[in-house]
Amino acid sequence: MARESGSNSVLNALITGLEASEDVREVWDTIMCLRDEQRKAEAKLADLQYWFTVAEEEIVEKQKQLK
């Protein structure tokens, strides 16, 4: 939860800065960059979950071979 509250404070600071900005293009670019970063993070998480699954399957196979 500590990370989440830290992320929330960063997000709140970003929102405050964007609200103060009069440059619509800057706001749009910032939002698109955040979206891209979120997608990258989700892809990394999906890859990690895949490799955990592969490792678990290999462990199960090795355990079967040892029986």
Instruction: Report the end-to-end length measured between terminal Cα atoms.
Output: 42 Å
Q: Could you give the count of β-strands?
A: 0
Beta-strand level of the residues, as a percent range?
A: under 5%
Unreliable sequence segments: none
- Total helices: the number is 2
Indicate the percent of residues in helices. Answer: over 70%
Rg, rounded, reads 20 Å
Largest sheet: none
Mean pLDDT: 86
Q: How do the helices and strands follow one another from N- to C-terminus?
A: HH
What's the shape? rod-shaped
Which structural category do the helix and sheet elements fall into? mainly alpha
Give a description of the structure.
- The chain has helices at residues 2-20, 24-66.
- By secondary structure, it is mainly alpha-helical.
- It has a domain at 24-67.
- The chain contains two helices and no strands.
- Helices cover 93% and strands 0% of the residues.
